[in-house]
Fold each of these.
Amino acid sequence: MFGFCEQKGQLQLKFITEDETWVHQNCHETQAQSMALIATVFWDMHFVLLLHFSPPNETVNSAAYQTTLKKLKRAVQRKMPQVADNSVL
């Protein structure tokens, strides 16, 4: 994803990158069953914009991903207002 930001008369390109990974939680003291979540992180060159953990047993389908993208859009509007107005999001 990317957006454009006009600042001081210059056009600046802003990239947002995304990655997903499995996160496993094990509790050895209680011998509880391990839990696995999908962590999705969005960031730009300065900071993390959104860290989203999918609920256990949630199927990652288009509806779930659209919900995550809506959260990302709100995060960009809150953390990068100069980009959010002209964004491609």
Amino acid sequence: MRNLRHSHDHGPKFLGVTRVSDKGQVVIPADARTELGLEAGDKLIVISGPGGGLMFFKPEFFDKHLNFLTKRIEDFQKINNDLSKEDTGESEEEI
């Protein structure tokens, strides 16, 4: 099996293998729980991933990254608006 563990970055890391129980439960491997600081009772957001996979995220991940992404979207909207004005020949004063 290819080792995806990278100690030098925050990229993908292989943290174990698990199975789905007949109750639909999944045990998160101990290495993954330790790596992410997960404890019993912690909530995780589950999202379908590419190729039929599943991704689990701590809610704090979304708090942190959604703020960043929201700012980037606002930046891109401004750039898009500026480009649209250039295409139509409008100036800021005309709008």
Amino acid sequence: MYKSLSAAEAIPIFISYANAAEVAKNSFVASIWDPALTQVTRIDDDRQLAAGTGEGWEPQLMRMLQNARIVLLLVNDDFVRSRYCMETELPLAVERHLAGETFAMVVRLMENEILS
């Protein structure tokens, strides 16, 4: 069993994906997730953005990506077609990975193959 960490101490994992692949993202996370990990990690993605903060979505998303110790890039055709994923999230994840600031991993989502 893992020792519980505070929210500030939890290892942030950022999931980059195209919004059109949200069902596949949720299936992927459910298939790999161990409930015990919630004591030591935190999943961040665009669904955790806070509305009504006076801050737009992009600064919040960039902060999540900048603070992530692990970045999972869920790549499918929608990801490749997404200008934001390809021109913003992917290059920053790779840059941070090469600098040793995060561990970035590409996960290929297969079309028409959603885990149940």
Amino acid sequence: MGDFDFGTLSAAATNRRTPVPASWWVYVLLALLFGGIGVHNLYARRRRAAAAQFGLFAAGVLWTVALDIIDVTPFGSFSRSPVAGWLTLWMFYDVCCVREDGHGNWMR
């Protein structure tokens, strides 16, 4: 029992758990292609932001479908709904301002 070095064990465990930083260019590409549903935030391990974006997207789709069913909507499709505009602004904010992944590492 006295020969075991706990310092080496904890250093090895720390090195294994340190994630590789996300690529900023992949983050931007995913944001431009799938920004409305939060795929870029999921890639960068920003799970809360990804869940919020996907939830807002799903609510917008359900809202648009419900208004189309009762035929009261002034919007012809989801792309003209206010939710799409909010998601687009959020996506541009992420591309312009977010530089850290979910673990606090700067994206490379």
